[in-house]
């Protein structure tokens, strides 16, 4: 072939090579960009220009020249300050204190309705974009997501002293602190003073030193003997709360000795269910019928049961009415004349009393999350700091709530002072907190973990890698997952063997 | 100043009455926005609260609350000393004829627009000057956001401007048999001279179970009493002043501090009525509900109930059942 002919043939070949080179180059650049944004794991991910996503560095410095943006979710809680400011004002003030310290941080506050919050968080976790900071008035401290940042990594020695010891146990799961404690909630029961006295019980003594399951069983018999118009022993609007409360003291006595899985198949849960079965068989449980308008709390308020297992401490406080309401406002409320006098009592202990009122305790928490696309260790550190700030400054809103104990020690004295003002309810709350504080800390943490998470405590470990690979799950309180079975049991629709079986590990794990 | 001649508006009045009754007939599930179909400038919605019928002597005699109110007014002027029994009998007819004659009207016992005007003139003439609410000077227009609070126990309407009381007026409210609608309403329409029973001004309220308003009156003697069919009556010169300040959308709260709240459990979404007002009011008071106590159990109310249930650890279904009412202090 002549020279010009070869040159004509090489022209298209060169063009083809050039196009191929360009295509490959563009593909490499595109893949690298995608990988750099966190959407793909590539063999060259160790290259120096790849954005750092590994590990959590609690000491990462905050860049004063960088603009940070944090998102906080909190709930609309029905509390107002003495000046009438809504609860969100307290959160806004905490955010303002934080941004005064960190002027290069902007914070967006999103307020949740109480019924919508948990599903919204679950959805955000599945999507990989939870808020940086999440304030929860209820639920367990660890949500079972690899996106949750355990704030224990960021604690220094002084932080431990800043919060009540019981509060730390309430946010710990198997030694890891998962969230900042905001406040503690004490979960007592409510007694009808008149019915207790008629049955020969001293309400003050029960309130001060507690009672046993056997004494509660005997209450039903005595009520029948003295003729109280068929009053039942226990009104139970929420059977899972009842089961959890009667399991608490036996769990305290033995949970720290072994694994939660062993405890749940041990004798204590079965014994508690059998005791409940006895109450149920003798008609001493007052529960709502499925599908009908529940009238359990109403029945207790009308004196048709001696003891109420309140569905929450807030419900107990509302019925107890530590702060009197005005009789007439823009209309007249129904009269409470003739209502029974109420007294706070602890759940029964088993097998013998400890001489102290022991009640279940839960924590309102402030959790920190990272997102699937990691914003950096400095961002996480700021979120942890903001979360810490959000645990303070609520006393004005919770001033009349003796069962709500501030976690931050700077406010505990103020709580104790308000308890003195609030009479018997306040004194009871102080006794309960002191009783919890006197427990061995390991026992308390183990019992709370065991009853919160059930036999399967399998929490995702914090890791940015895990965040990218493992699908996050929402881990709710264990017994709530069994609510249908527990309710069916209390309504005599589920045999006790079924309930015992499910408690002991008939579960396949968190959803 | 020439007075308007309201009687010429009666055909229009009847037309509007027919249209306005549609939302009441349909109830909460009816087509929305019917109020907006009414010609705002042409007489607006017409209330249930005043009968407006022409009274006269008939066989059998006419009966009703309007007759009783007439008898009370005539008695106040010393023209009637019989029983206030709500029966338009010969004695009532004589008193009506006497008043008509005094004012140069034909003496037939007809209670028509001219009669009511004469009765109002006579009532005002009989008041001592010191007792005349009319003697109060006109007030400067209020500044800031307006709120009207009507206490149907003290029979006072107070205008709040920017959160501070600006002026208080005496009013008449509903009779025990036809009470005024307590709740948190808004002015939904306004009108001038919509009909004789309503005096010179009308301001309709957003009450969902009937047509109620704040209006003037042709029976000034009823002010300060519980005499109306549920509306709030004011002296005409008062309502004329207020009318200038109030716009469509102005909130109007009707309160009754000793009215016992009765709430039926498990009201379904979409329910309408006083029971819903009390439920909303109490939830608002306890921090659960941020809307108005407007008597309609809508999405915001259901959402508030759901929040309350979640907070208290009850099953979350949005129904204010017995236990929810117990935790709202509304159980009986």
Description of the structure:
The complex is a heterodimer of chains A (511) and B (332). Chain A is of the alpha/beta class. Chain A has 21 helices and 14 strands. In chain A, the strands form 3 sheets. In chain A, strands 1, 2, 3, 4, 7, 13 and 14 form a 7-stranded mixed beta sheet that branches. Among the domains of chain B are: 6-50 and 135-255, Beta Barrel (L,D-transpeptidase catalytic domain-like); 274-326, no CATH class. In chain B, 30% of the residues lie in helices and 15% in strands. Chain B has 9 helices and 10 strands. An 8-stranded mixed beta sheet of chain B has the order 3-2-1-10-5-6-7-9. In chain B, strands 4-8 form a two-stranded parallel sheet. Residues 1-45 of chain B have low confidence and may be disordered. Chain A binds chain B through residues 76-80, 86, 113-115, 137, 237-238, 241, 288, 293-298, 301, 310-312, 314-315, 318-319, 325, 328-334, 336, and chain B through 182, 253, 255-261, 265-266, 278, 281-282, 285-288, 303, 306-316, 319, 321-323, 325-327, 329-332.
Q: What's this entry about, in short?
A:
The complex is a heterodimer of chains A (511) and B (332). Chain A is α/β, with parallel strands linked by helices and 511 residues long.
């Amino acid at each position: 072939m002549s020279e010009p002919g070869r040159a004509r043939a090489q022209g298209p070949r060169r063009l083809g090579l050039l196009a191929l080179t360009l295509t490959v180059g563009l593909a490499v650049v595109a893949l690298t960009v995608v990988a750099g944004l966190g959407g793909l794991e590539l063999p060259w991910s160790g290259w120096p220009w790849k954005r750092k996503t590994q590990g959590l560095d609690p000491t990462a410095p905050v860049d004063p020249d960088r603009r940070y943006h944090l998102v906080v979710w909190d709930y609309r809680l029905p509390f107002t300050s003495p000046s009438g400011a809504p609860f969100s004002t307290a959160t806004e003030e905490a955010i303002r204190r934080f941004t005064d310290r960190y002027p290069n941080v902007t914070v967006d506050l999103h307020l949740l309705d109480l019924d919508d919050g948990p599903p919204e968080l679950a959805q955000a976790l599945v999507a990989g974009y939870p808020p940086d900071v999440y304030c929860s008035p209820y639920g367990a401290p660890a949500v079972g997501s690899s996106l949750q940042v355990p704030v224990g990594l960021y604690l220094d020695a002084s932080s431990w002293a800043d919060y009540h010891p019981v509060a730390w146990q309430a946010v710990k799961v198997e030694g890891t602190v998962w969230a900042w404690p905001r406040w503690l909630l004490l979960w007592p029961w409510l007694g009808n003073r008149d019915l207790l006295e008629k049955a020969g019980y001293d309400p003050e003594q029960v309130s001060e030193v507690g009672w046993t399951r056997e004494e509660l069983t005997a209450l039903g018999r005595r009520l029948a003997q003295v003729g109280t118009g068929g009053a039942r022993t226990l009104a139970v609007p929420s059977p899972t709360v009842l089961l959890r409360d009667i399991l608490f003291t036996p769990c305290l006595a033995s949970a720290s000795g072994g694994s939660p899985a062993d405890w749940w198949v041990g004798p204590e849960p079965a014994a508690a269910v059998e005791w409940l079965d006895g109450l149920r068989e003798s008609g001493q449980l007052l529960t709502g019928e499925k599908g009908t308008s529940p009238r359990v709390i109403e029945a207790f308020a009308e004196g048709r049961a001696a003891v109420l297992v309140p569905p929450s401490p807030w419900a107990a406080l509302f019925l107890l009415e530590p702060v009197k309401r005005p009789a007439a406002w823009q209309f007249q409320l129904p009269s409470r004349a003739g209502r029974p006098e109420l007294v706070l009592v602890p759940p029964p202990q088993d097998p013998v009393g400890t001489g102290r009122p022991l009640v279940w305790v839960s924590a309102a928490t402030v959790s920190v999350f990272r997102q699937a696309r990691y914003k950096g260790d400095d961002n996480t550190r700021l979120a942890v700091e903001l979360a810490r700030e959000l645990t303070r400054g609520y006393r004005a809103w919770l001033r009349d709530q003796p069962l709500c104990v501030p976690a931050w020690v700077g406010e505990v004295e103020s709580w104790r002072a308000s308890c003195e003002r609030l009479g018997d309810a306040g004194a009871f709350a102080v006794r309960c907190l002191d009783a919890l504080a006197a427990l061995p800390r390991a026992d308390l943490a183990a019992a709370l973990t065991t009853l919160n998470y059930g036999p399967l405590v399998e929490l995702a470990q914090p890791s940015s890698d895990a965040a990218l690979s493992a699908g996050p799950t929402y881990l709710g309180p264990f017994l709530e997952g069994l609510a249908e079975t527990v309710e069916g049991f209390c309504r005599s629709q589920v045999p006790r063997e079924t309930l015992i079986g499910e408690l002991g590990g008939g579960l396949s794990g968190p959803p | 100043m020439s007075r308007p001649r309201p009687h010429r508006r009666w055909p229009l009045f009847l037309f509007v009455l027919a249209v306005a009754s549609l939302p009441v007939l349909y109830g909460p599930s009816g087509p929305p926005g019917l109020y907006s179909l009414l010609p705002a400038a042409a007489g607006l919605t017409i209330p249930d609260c005043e009968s407006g019928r022409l009274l006269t002597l008939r066989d059998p005699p006419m009966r009703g609350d309007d007759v009783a109110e007439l008898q009370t007014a005539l008695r106040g002027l010393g023209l009637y000393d019989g029983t206030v029994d709500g029966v338009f009998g010969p004695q009532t007819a004589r008193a009506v004829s006497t008043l008509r004659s005094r004012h140069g009207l034909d003496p037939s016992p007809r209670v028509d627009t001219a009669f009511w005007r004469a009765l109002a003139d006579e009532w005002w003439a009989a008041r001592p000057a010191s007792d005349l609410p009319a003697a109060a000077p006109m007030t400067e227009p209020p500044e800031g956001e307006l709120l009207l609070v009507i206490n149907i126990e003290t029979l006072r309407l107070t205008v709040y401007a920017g959160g501070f009381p600006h002026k208080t007026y005496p009013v008449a409210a509903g009779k025990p048999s036809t009470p005024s609608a307590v709740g948190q309403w808004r002015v939904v329409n306004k009108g001038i001279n919509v009909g004789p029973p309503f005096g010179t001004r009308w301001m309709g309220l957003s009450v969902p179970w009937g047509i109620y308003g704040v209006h003037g009156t042709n029976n000034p003697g009823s002010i300060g009493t519980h005499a109306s069919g549920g509306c709030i009556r004011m002296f005409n010169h008062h309502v004329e002043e207020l009318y200038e300040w109030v716009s469509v959308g102005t909130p109007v709260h009707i309160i009754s501090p000793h009215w016992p709240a009765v709430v039926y459990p498990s009201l379904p979404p979409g329910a309408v009525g006083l029971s819903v007002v009390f439920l909303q009011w109490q939830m608002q008071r306890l921090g659960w509900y941020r809307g108005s106590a407007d008597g309609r159990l809508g999405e915001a109310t259901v959402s508030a109930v759901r929040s309350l249930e979640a907070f208290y650890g009850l099953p979350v279904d949005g129904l204010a059942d017995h236990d929810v009412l117990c935790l709202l202090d509304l159980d009986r």
